[in-house]
Structure formats: structure tokens, C-alpha cells
Predict the structure.
Amino acid sequence: MKGTFPRIPSGCSITGILNKKAKRFSGADVIRSIRLMHDRSNGLGGGFAGYGIYPQYKDHYAFHLLYTNEASQHDTEYFLEKNFVIDRCEPIPTRPHPRITDTPMLWRYFLRVKPYVVEQFSSSHNRELVKSADEADAEKNFVVSQVMEINQKIGGAFVASSGKNMGVFKGVGFPEDIGEFYRVEEYEGYMWTSHGRFPTNTPGWWGGAHPFTILDWSVVHNGEISSYGINRRYLEAFGYHCTLQTDTEVIAYLFDLLHRRQGLSLENTCLALAAPFWKEIDRYPEPKREAVTAIRQVYGSAMLNGPFSLVVGFTGGMIGITDRIKLRPLVCGQKDEVVYLSSEESAIREICPAPDRVWTIRAGEPIIVKLEEGVQP
Amino acid sequence: MMRSLVSPDFLVKIDHRQCRRCKRCVQGCGFGALSFQDRVVPDNTRCVACQRCVAFCPEEAITVVRNPLAFKGNDYWTANDIKSIYKQAEAGGMLFTGMGNDRPYGSYFDRMVLDACQVTNPSIDPLREPMELRTYLGSKPNALEFVERAGGAGSGGPGADMAPLGATLATRLGPQVALETPIIFAAMSYGAISLQAHKALARAASLAGSLMNTGEGGLHKELYPYSDRIIVQVASGRFGVDQEYLDRGAAVEIKIGQGAKPGIGGHLPGEKVSQEVSQTRMIPEGSDALSPAPHHDIYSIEDLSQLIYALKEATRYSKPVGVKIAAVHNVAAIASGIARAGADFVYIDGFRGGTGAAPTMIRDNIGIPIEMAIAAVDDRLRLEGIRNQVTLVAAGGIRNSGDVAKAIALGADVVAIGTAALLAMGCHLCQKCNTGNCSWGIATQRPELTRRLETEEATERLVNLLRGWSLELKDFLGALGVNAIESLRGSRERLRGVGLNQVELDVLGIKPCGR
């Protein structure tokens, strides 16, 4: 399953919905929104990320896995048991669907990292690349390494998501069908993102559908990263292995590296990934000019170039951003405490007919929306 | 009596019906290959095919042709081999030459092709959209640190969330030199080339936002106005190096080796050490300027580190200090050592790199192609997590903007051009720089020859070349669907090999075409 296909370029539709008061709502809305943009995908990939969907296991790493065969499941579970306590393990609930076929085995695991494992890991990887600010961060570095190892080394197994209190439901099909297949409407979350895929050249591969994730980062992406080659090589130096042969995965890893591990703010991370043009930077007042210049100097290899609009989800918020000349669409809407991001305004109005505000976001300028202050996810 | 076994390489044909006996060609020939005795008489043995006479003959009455005199065909003993043996049998010395390795080793640049966008990722029109070539020469940290600013970005609604930055940069970057194009001029010393040529390089670098490099011959006062666009070189001879020299440069480069003659030193013969050269190099007029093979204070990497930091101290850490080496077998490990020794940039010169004078055998038989060196060094620095610490400058046989784009895609930050810059000024690649007779006024100190190189015109031609290549680079970027050079840099995914074997593909880190 892995590594057998060349990189797959794709067009697409994306949607994100966040309730800033962390009120949980059913996945039905996000299915309706993405269904409206049916024509932006071609039935070769759809998916959803839900945040706040596992409140009863909110401190566990929720691993969603796709297996092509029983051996891969056996190997993966054996691998997980070494370092994790598996508190719950079950098939991901699905319903038979006429248009969703060739489904892999879909399982989820709620995991706690065994004691001492992180310490061992950190001391055996004491290079600067896995240096971490604190213990929680060290644990996350460890979890990242485990995801990389499963994706890289266990044939037929693929981690769809690995964050806490969130999960990804994705596969080959139109996104609305995928949503029905996974019974997404039965979950409640405070944030949902979704993706409908229009790859130009694809085998039906479930791992290749969006969202792409690492830890609680999820990325849905319309476009293609023309700078993938260097972004990938940049990430490899920091221990991220791009095994999925799809440009989008680098985005999730870049957010993890720049924001979580290197401590850049989300704003600055976005400045690195969709950097302003030099002629704009040169006009900034000091000290902003110096800071943004430094960001471009240092993070040039992380800059995402080529057409994209993205919705990036993380615990407690989401980011909407496009490439710096906006070769892909992205619209933002707001109604009370709910914020919407979508490829099309119609997909927002489909589920929110009278938003307080709808606007087209500007090229390269991020919309960063977080839960209201004091609100716990 | 036999004159010599060495037959002339070229024949100069004068069409005496066309010739109006103006003698311009006789004056023009720096090599004394033409004289006038009632009519123009060529001495074929002296002709180097520099084409000066051809270009300046008002009647187009001169042609220079390769001497058709044939040795009996032999695929192993070439005419070149045979003639070289005759020469050495006559004179008993080493063979000397100028410019870069001209042997048929082939080129990896010619075996690589670039990608372009079709449909799924759109190409970008450089005539309509901004295309950024700006590059910074200097060491960068792996990450930046910011400290929270009091009253920074809050989270009270989408508007407030958009406030940029919200924190102050805490990391102080080392010195950076901004380049408006990733193409700079390679090191060529005053002494090896004329002051006119040196000035043209400096002015062109200044006008184009690029850099020129003094080479090891010091910095003439007439170049002072352009000093913010000059890399000053510190080589084993330390010619012209003093505090002011270091202060004048935008960056400092320690020269360990050169692609045309790795492992050996240099020698500027005394006849080229004119009064001006002598003052600039700070050596007696007419004395030979000898550059030792190694720096006599550098016998190991820790010695190099000391010199790097001595130069940084001397310049108060205000400018990048780099190291130039020739691309040799173990170049990756050497470059890594240089990065760890504290250099801000590493300049790698491939085996096609030019020279004012080198032993032919050394030039033709030592060193590796720059393409392989870039790939190996970039890989190694990334593997060690120190790629950001140094700017990688690649040189040695960059012939056009296609080579530039490929070098950058392999992993170079900046490329340097020497031979191409000389060609832009009128050089005809006759490979006789070592004789000091350059008819084009470039690689000579003879005043009657140097004065024919118009600095103004040469400057304009150099600026034009940089502009033309930069426009073409922007076209490459647009076709690749990116709008900044850093998205091409090291992006080997955008390269494919044509007719390379698997080992070569692996070293270059690229796929074969069709994959």
C-alpha cells in the first residue's frame, strides 16, 4: 500500500467549522456543507476530522488505523503494545454503503504512553533534532516517532490520526458518502473539518485521502505544493518521514515542527509557510521588518509554494490560509460564536443561511480562530 | 633546419584582395602573430585563435581556421597528446595553461532536466506575478526564538486573531549579505586580470545587487566605491591583506583551493607585477607573487577555525566569513568540517572552474564535477542538521541559467560565475591567460592591451548577462509554479536524470526521467 504510487496531485473542496464556545455539535452539518461542493471532487477521496469527539478518552492518544490485511493489524498491535497501554481497542463503527467499496480494516485505539518509555526515547535520541521544551513535549516527540515508524515500516498499516480527543475518518469515495459510511453524524465535536478530493491521477488509496494528520494537527488542502521537494527534505532533517507520497502531509509536519517543537507562534508559523513578498517586507516598520526578514531567511525551506488553500485544525482552534498569490479559493464566515471556512461561500450558506459576516480572505494572510478565552476544549 | 615538431594549432588566412592594409590586426594581436611586411604576414605558430583580429578587421578579410594538418588517425594518442610530448621534449618543463578543464569528461548538467507545471499546479507568469530571487549570504540558525510582547495578539474574535507577530524576535542572526540574484562573480585577482576588468566586475556587482570577489590579489583603491559588493579574499599568499582590506569587504573568504588546481599554489610572474599591482598586493614591483600550496598557518581544521575566528574578530563579527575549497573526492566531509569550524559560507569550486594559470596536468586530472559536489555536500550538511549554518556557493563551469537552476535545485544557495563573466567581457576562451598577452585586455597587465577594455562597456555587458540570466531564472521558477528561489533550492524532486546510471542518480539524489 505504501510507497507504491507516485505522488498524486489534486484539486479539491475544503470546509471547516469551529464553535468558539466549544459547544459540541453533530457531524451532520459538515457533511451537508461538503456535499454541496460535490462537483469539486471526483469520488476518489473524502474525509473528516472531528475535534472534541472523544470526551470520555480526552487524555488518550486516539489512534485511527487503516489496515489492508490481518498481518498488518497483528504487527501494528504488537508494536503498539510494546510502548503503550491500550485502554480501549475497537473497530471504527461504519455502516454498509453502496458506493463505498474495497474498504480496508478500520480500527481505533485509545492509548497511554507507558512510563519510562519517553525517558528512554529522549536519552537515546539526544540530538538537537528531538530536543524538547518539556516533558509533555518529549512525549509528543515520542508519539510522532511511533507514527512515523508504523507508516514507514509496517507494510499495509497506516495511521489516519494520532491526536488526543480528535479523530479522522477518511477514505476513497465522495466525501458525503464517506461521512455516511463512517456515521460521522453520530459524533459530536466542537470543530469539524472536511475534504473532497479531485486527484488527477490516482489509484484508490484510502491513506491518500485528506485530512492528513500528526498528533492533533489535521490538514485539509486544496491545491498542490510545488515546493514539496524541498519541504520534504527540510523535514527529513528533523526526523519526519514523508511516506504517504502526497504533498499535503508536509503541511501537518511543518506545523508540528515550527509551532510545537520550535515554539514559533501560529502567526509566525503562517508567516514562514506563506511568507509575504520581499517588496512588502521591505516596507514594514522596524522591528517587524527585521523579524519577518529573519523568518524568511531561516525558514525559506519551509515555505509552501504553489497553489493552496488550507484549513488546519488543532486542539482549540483552526487556521485558514492560502498561498501568497491565492491560486485557490477560501471564504470565511461568522455567525455568533461559530466560524466557518470553506472553498465556497455557498457551502457556508448551505448550513448557515444568514451569517453575520462573510468575507474572502486575502492572499497569504492567515485567519487564526481559537476558542474563546477560558473555554476548555 | 627543422623549426619545431610542434605544428601550429591554427592557421590565419588573410584575404589580401579584401585587406586594405590598415594594420589594425597587427596592433590588435597581443600574441605577436601578425606582422606587416608590405602586407599582413601571419606567424601561425603564435596564433591562439582569440579572434581579436577577426572581430576588428573592417574588411572581414581574416579567418582563423584549425590547422588541418593531420596526424595519422589514432583514437588513443590524440593530436593533443602528441604535441604536448613534442613541447615538453623541446623545453623540459611543465605544461601550463589558462581557463578551466577542457577535457571531454561530459557534464551532469547536460544529463538533468527540470520539471514544469501542467494543470494541477498552475505555472506562474513571471511577466504578471512577482518572482523573487533574493538570497542572503550568511549563516542562519536552525530556529528562531521570539519573546512574548506585553499586550500582544489576543483571541477576541477573528479580527484580533489576525494581528501579526505579537512577539519580538529574540534570536540575533549573524551578518547577512543580500543578493538580488543568486548569481555572483567568482574570485579573479587583480594581477591575473586587468584593473579595467576588475573594476567592471565590481561596478556590475554593485549595479546588479550581486557580489564580486577580489581573488587573492588585494583590492585596488579604484574599487573602494563598490566595497559593499565585494568579497575580499584571504589566500595563502595573504597579498594585500590588512585591516583596511578586511574592513572594505562585504564578506571575507579564506581561499583554500581552486577547482582548476586543487592542492597546488599559485604563481603570478614578476613581469605582471606592475607598480599598481605591486601596491595593491603589497609586494615589491617586478617580484614573483607566490601563493603557497597550503596556508602555512593552516595544517588542520582547527587551524582553519582559528583563522576564521581571527578574521571574525578583526571584522568585529560584522560580515560573513567563508571558506573556498576545490571539489575533491571527500568534499562532503571537508565542507561539514568547515561549517563546524565556524564558516558562514562554503564556496565549492568544481573541476571545470577556470584559472589565470595552472599546470595543465593538474587542471585536467584533479577534482570532481560541481554537480556531484553540490549534491554530496548538501546531503551531508542536512544529514548532520547543519545545513542552515552555512550558505553553499557553487562554482566551476556554470555556462547558462539552466546550469544555475539545476545547481540550485541540487542544493546550492548561490552560484558563482568566472569564465562566463570573462566571456561577457569579450574573452574568447583561447586558454592563454597564463601568457599575459590577452588581446582583449582582460587577462593581461600590458598597458597597451588593458586600455582596450572599456570599463563602461564591460560593466554594461556584465550587468546585461546577470539580468538575462535572472530573467531566465524567473522563467524557470514560473514554469515550476513557484515564485521564490528558496522553493527551488534543494528541491531535487524537480530534477530528473537522462541517461544516468543508478549510482549517479543516487549520488545526485534524483529520479530518472519517466518516474
